[in-house]
Amino acid sequence: MDAPHRYRKLLAAKIHRATVTAADVNYEGSLTVPPELLEAAGIVAYESLHVWNVTRGSRLETYAIEGLPGSSDICANGAAAHLIRPGDHVILAAYAMIPESETKSHQPKLIFVNEKNEISHTGPEVPGPQMPTAADRGTGKTSDVDGFKSATARQHAFAEEC
């Protein structure tokens, strides 16, 4: 008999620092997201979403609902509207169960947006301690030998220009 497959819950997709444009407590529930952002992240309508409010520090789980094409609307609906307000910055995350044998090669779709909820760039993520400081941005100064910080510093500088 074959050994049972082990799965791990890993990040599948993330939309980083979207700006909330509306909140409606009278709606039945969910988080409205432009279809272009959902598609870029590989998130489908009605998929479970973790929502981390960077502005307020709150976290919740809801589901994605497709907004209007070409819009920049990120709308907190129903009970979520008590924890998320217009102007807040949120991180939207979806997870998937990945077979243990695929965890080392798994790459989530990471979408970074600007203040207008337009895609500024895509992954990779930069670990906190490796983020370039304000003094390093634009100077090309890095301290690592593999170029990771240099590449990510350029990526973040580009995103800030957008």
Question: What distinguishing features does this structure have?
Answer:
162 residues; mainly beta; 9 strands; 13% helix
- Percent helix: 10-25%
**How large a portion of the residues is in β-strands, by DSSP E?**
35-45%
Distance between the termini: 56 Å
Question: What number is the mean pLDDT?
Answer: 86
E-strand count: 9
Q: Helix- and strand-based class?
A: mainly beta
Order of helices and strands: EEEHEEEEEEH
Strand order of the largest sheet: 2-6-3-5-4-7-1-8-9
Main sheet record: 9 strands, mixed
The protein's oligomeric status is single chain
Specify Rg, calculated over alpha carbons: 18 Å
Count of helix runs: 2
User: Runs with pLDDT <50, length 5+?
Assistant: 141-152
Shape: globular
Describe the model.
The protein is mainly beta and 162 residues long. Helix content is 13%, strand content 35%. It has 2 helices and 9 strands, in the order βββαββββββα. The protein has helices at 35-41, 148-161; strands at residues 7-19, 22-24, 30-33, 48-53, 59-66, 75-77, 89-99, 109-113, 119-122. A 9-stranded mixed sheet has the order 2-6-3-5-4-7-1-8-9. A hairpin with a 5-residue loop joins strand 8 and strand 9. It starts with 6 loop residues before the first strand and ends with a helix. Residues 141-152 have low confidence and may be disordered.
